Amino acid sequence: MRGADAPVFHIEFGTADYGLRAWVTGTNGTLETTLAYWRAIAEEVRRLSPSGLLVVDDMEGLPPPPEQLLQFVQAMRGQGMEAVRIAYVERHTEQIPEVEFAGLLANEHGFDARIFGTEAEAVLWLRYGERDV
User: How would you label 79-90 residue by residue, b for 16+ Cβ within 10 Å and e otherwise?
Assistant: First the structure.
């Protein structure tokens, strides 16, 4: 997706035995960008109905600030993501604590999401990890 002056983010989709893979690149840092790329992913999830979703975040910039994360999670309700297991890989390991907070909020609001530092761990969880009941 392109902003007014430059690309904000790009998503490359692929399928695998565990479901859908979304590799996100570009620049983040705002709630609007985060919502835009997650809504694009949700559209693909609704189209394909995978059992699992691997999101590999390779974006530059920071995630939205903690005070906006609840707003993000609430905005994603009803987008079709509640029916899919979500494994989120944060390539910038120093950002994992902030992203884990978003994951906790997501789980409290009906999503089945886990945060990982490596794609290999995320894929293992999607294939074999315990499902929430």
Answer: eebeebbbbbbb
